[in-house]
């Protein structure tokens, strides 16, 4: 605006009121001393000496009002935080912001959006099962899921979600934001307050995800596996892991005689030592069928269930954490009534050690969820159909090693029945 005045584009400035122009006295002093601008308000001109004095007084009052409102807003923010309520602004995917008219008696600001929350749970589950970030993003895109902005998922978006303590019902501490960048990696979960909204995943899930991501440099989107057996299956000749590649079909004559059909690209598996280069889809279908049948067999289910029962389940560990919380609250109640005692402080320190141990064990158990889910699903085929590629790969890796044999030149294996004799399965439990 001042540049426009200097260029001679206007000589009178009209405002509704003085505080619509500025609420800082420094601005007025800068404006009137360096430029002979006539300022007109609905109350009349203020370009005379007397009106100039009034302008400064009115701006001083407006500046004081801003300071009072700022202090009031700061006190409100502190009180709101004590109650576990987030600040207005960006609402995490999986929640929606509730306006004041829709809040409950506790003033809850976040409400779970169920279809989005299912995506959040899937993201955490797949990542802790070993799926790369890029693979998780691709699985969501293939399922026709989009971000709240309607855009495709990217690994950076998935990473930010996995780092966000809001999903565990935790309110992170205020952070000095530099250049508009809020650094999720700098958040300490132990410094977070309990949020006044329902969590989508447990604290253990967020803690386990952050433990893997904090300090890890982002990598290129293309590193995630795109196919079921890439890096898992091995060549029968050299025992080296196979990797995914692509093949190109030969042009074939059309049945109606109208020329040749165009060549098409298709998914393949290739031995890195060039012992074979085979179509991948039939092999994936064969391994899927074998894997599901194995999970459906009573002896395999018993074996897998026994392996799961030998360890600790998430529900058992969560119950122990809840019991620890009750014990901790009892100690705090004792401190409130009897004051600080050495025994109470020692008990709190012991509980802290127990909590750290439980959370570490829970994180370890969580990472084996895909196999446990498949074992206890009751319908292995339905579980497989609904599972992401990352979870399927985890189950395959836990159950078997797929050995792919070379085939004769010109030998076609387009069906599962023809593929099965050309591969071998080495069961992990055998």
Strand and helix layout:
Layout: H1 2-6, E1 12-14, H2 18-21, H3 25-34, E2 38-41, E3 44-45, H4 49-82, E4 95-97, E5 110-112, H5 114-128, H6 133-142, H7 155-163, E6 170-171, E7 193-194, H8 203-213, E8 234-235, E9 242-248, E10 265-271, E11 277-279, H9 280-296, H10 298-310, H11 314-338, H12 342-366, H13 369-376, H14 380-386, H15 389-399, E12 400-404, H16 416-419, E13 423-427
Parallel strand pairs: 1-2, 8-12
Antiparallel strand pairs: 2-3, 4-5, 6-7, 9-10, 10-11, 12-13
Q: What class would the helix/strand composition place it in?
A: mainly alpha
Strand order across the biggest sheet? 1-2-3
Task: Tell me the series of helices and strands, N- to C-terminal.
Answer: HEHHEEHEEHHHEEHEEEEHHHHHHHEHE
Number of domains: 4
Instruction: State the share of residues found in helices, binned by percent.
Output: 40-55%
State which percent range the strand residues make up.
5-15%
Q: Could you give me the name of the CATH homologous superfamily of the largest domain?
A: Putative Large Serine Recombinase, Chain B, Domain 2
CATH topology of the largest domain: Hect, E3 ligase catalytic domain fold
Total of DSSP H or I helical runs spanning 4+ residues: 16
> Based on the structure given, which CATH architecture of the largest domain is correct?
Alpha-Beta Complex
Distance between the termini: 80 Å
Q: CATH first level of the largest domain: which class?
A: Alpha Beta
Mean of residue pLDDT?
Answer: 77
Low-confidence stretches: 217-223
Global shape: flat
Task: Report the biggest beta sheet as strand number plus sense, adding barrel if it closes.
Answer: 3 strands, mixed
Q: Please give the number of β-strands.
A: 13
Question: From the alpha-carbon coordinates, what is the Rg to the nearest angstrom?
Answer: 32 Å
